[in-house]
From TrEMBL, chain A:
InterPro entries assigned: AAA+_ATPase (IPR003593), ABC_transp_ATP-bind (IPR050319), ABC_transporter-like_ATP-bd (IPR003439), ABC_transporter-like_CS (IPR017871), P-loop_NTPase (IPR027417)
Family: Belongs to the ABC transporter superfamily.
SUPFAM superfamilies linked: P-loop containing nucleoside triphosphate hydrolases
Xref: PANTHER family: D,D-DIPEPTIDE TRANSPORT ATP-BINDING PROTEIN DDPF-RELATED, TRANSPORT ATP-BINDING PROTEIN
Any matching Pfam family: ABC_tran
UniProt keyword annotations, A-Z: ATP-binding, Nucleotide-binding, Transport
Gene3D superfamilies linked to this entry: P-loop containing nucleotide triphosphate hydrolases (3.40.50.300)
Domain annotation ABC transporter: ranges: 7-249
This protein's name: Peptide/nickel transport system ATP-binding protein
Source superkingdom: Bacteria
GO molecular function: ATP binding; ATP hydrolysis activity
GO biological process, one term: transmembrane transport
Length: 260, 275
């Protein structure tokens, strides 16, 4: 499996602010994702997992360290390098509503990446319908504006757009945290099914171990900018050594809720 | 685009207000055609006459037909106001968006400069400029333009800042969307609805500002008819000929109210969450 590394970070560091306000958000993070493998990243709020995801998305330049895709180092200063990278790596953000321009119809939104990368056929309506079909939505949504859709429907549209370029990796920043429990389940099942069908890698960030485990083969546990543990999803409940990691397990999450 | 046409046609009150506003403006732009007499011809022996067949709304202190002056005055007042609002909204918005997209030190310096200018009441700035460059309708219009665009620059700048770091712009970057398309498809559609609403409501403000300056004797100069200037002239004869104040005052009031109501309705229509 080692020869088949799709995405890899080496000693990623990220620093925000200066002087008194200096914050080291990442303190040398190295993760590997193999082709077709999905990984989860869990940690408390502020542990640096979203920063890591933004760097992996090419939206932020790290203070030091590298991101490699299929052995090629991503050049954060090169538009071409980022453009090539974004053909293969897409992202689904936490709050679906925030990823829509309120004045853009769903059809235009869905076809934006295809239009930019030259994959648009005609007016693209058929392509848009096909994309919606993947996420179990129909043609009637195409002419609507974002506020006319529910949170779950919006997140499905976001996923459909991410699929438009047929990427090899989809980064998911707590994609279900803004949704109710039933919609969460439906979205997670959909993502899992799509990943399997397309042999696509998912990098899922969250703080609920059962949700992360559902989608991932391996899980990285992050604490204050560092990876503290790396576990296989199937055996993580038995293998976890760090007390920090155990607090994300379902029975302990319940305790936290009851104690609160 | 169909969504917006549908929203506009479904909002009956907006359609009514829009029609009335267009009719008002068009009427006054072509009003000189209907003027029964010359607006500047003086008849000293006809001064301050009450309404009659020859002078439907009476005459002013110099015996000029008041209806004709109102109709001619409407054209210059409305043309100047429309010109001012169109210019300041376009110029201010362009500058504001460019400053926000440029970022860095240039943006900071420029915006602090605008803060300083905004701290001085615009009426004072206009008065200073008019006193330096001289009275007159053109000078007043240029003076108002040169201080009023700043409001639009501030509004558009803060709107762009609001979503410059937003997820939908980030996602556009990830989707390989080019900067020009981001500007026209993502930035402008989110800025223009706000600007259009502000501009519509500003129409009334600018008409009043222009009239106030004319009232002070700084805008239109005799014998040019202009509503604000006509008010200024009429105030000396308030008791003997109240129509000299009533008619231009009423027309300014009607236009300000109509454009404010249109702005309110436009705000509802352009809000994508209003169905």
């Amino acid at each position: 499996m080692n020869d088949n590394i799709l995405l890899e970070t080496r000693e990623l560091r990220q620093i925000y602010g200066k002087g008194r306000d200096r914050l080291e958000a990442l303190k040398g993070v190295s993760v590997k994702v193999h082709s077709g493998e999905s990984i989860g990243i869990i940690g408390l709020s502020g542990c640096g997992k979203s920063t890591l995801l933004r760097i992996l998305a090419g939206l932020e330049t790290p203070a030091s360290g590298t991101v490699q895709f299929r052995g090629q180092t991503l050049d954060f200063d090169s538009r071409k390098s980022l453009r090539d990278y974004h053909r293969k790596v897409q992202m689904v953000f936490q709050n679906p509503m925030s990823t829509f321009s309120p004045y853009m119809t769903i059809q235009t939104y869905l076809l934006e990446s295809l239009r930019s990368f030259g994959g648009l056929e005609g007016d693209g309506r058929e392509q848009a319908v096909a994309l919606l079909k993947h996420v179990e939505l129909d043609e009637t949504f195409l002419d609507r504006l974002p506020h006319q859709l529910s949170g779950g429907q919006l997140q499905r549209v976001v996923i459909a757009r991410a699929l438009a370029l047929n990427p090899e990796v989809i980064l998911l920043d707590e994609p279900t945290s803004a949704l109710d429990i039933l919609t969460q389940r439906a979205i997670l099942e959909l993502l899992s099914q799509i990943a399997k069908e397309r042999n696509m890698s998912l990098i899922f960030v969250g703080h609920n171990s059962s949700v992360v485990r559902l989608l991932s083969h391996r899980v990285y546990v992050m604490e204050t900018g560092r990876i503290v543990e790396e576990l296989f999803s199937e055996t993580m409940l038995q293998d976890a050594k760090e007390p920090y990691t155990r607090q994300f397990f379902p029975e302990n999450l319940k305790k936290v809720v009851y104690n609160y | 685009m169909n969504i917006w046409i549908k929203k506009i046609t479904e909002n009956k009150i907006f359609c009514l207000l829009l029609t009335l506003n267009i009719l008002l403006v068009v009427f006054f732009l072509f009003a000189p055609q209907f003027a029964p007499n010359s607006p500047i011809e003086i008849h000293a022996d006809h001064a301050l006459l009450d309404s009659s067949g020859q002078y439907p709304l009476g005459t002013d202190q110099l015996g000029r037909c008041f209806l004709s002056r109102l109709l001619y005055g409407g054209k210059s007042s409305l043309l100047m106001t429309i010109g001012i609002v169109v210019f300041i909204s376009l110029a201010g918005t362009t500058v504001g968006i460019m400053a926000a997209l440029a970022g860095g030190a240039a943006e900071q310096i420029f915006m602090r400069f605008l803060d300083v200018v905004l701290a001085i009441p615009s009426m004072v700035l206009v008065l200073v400029m008019v006193s330096i460059f001289g009275n007159g309708i053109v000078t007043t219009t240029i003076a108002i333009m040169s201080v009023s665009w700043i409001t639009y620059a501030r509004i558009s700048h803060s709107l762009v800042l609001e979503f410059r770091e937003s997820n939908f712009i980030k996602q556009a970057h990830m989707g390989g969307v080019r900067s020009v398309r981001i500007l026209f498809k993502y930035v402008l559609p989110n800025v223009f609805p706000h600007i259009i609403v502000v501009a519509t409501q500003d129409f009334g403000d600018k008409l009043l500002l222009l009239s106030s300056l004319s009232l002070l004797g700084l805008g239109a100069q005799p014998p040019t008819p202009e509503w604000g200037y006509m008010l200024s002239e009429g105030k000396q004869f308030m008791q003997r000929a109240p129509w000299l104040l009533f008619y231009p005052g009423f027309l300014i009031f009607i236009h300000v109210i109509m454009f404010n109501l249109l702005g309110d309705r436009l705000q509802d229509i352009l809000d994508p969450k209003e169905t």
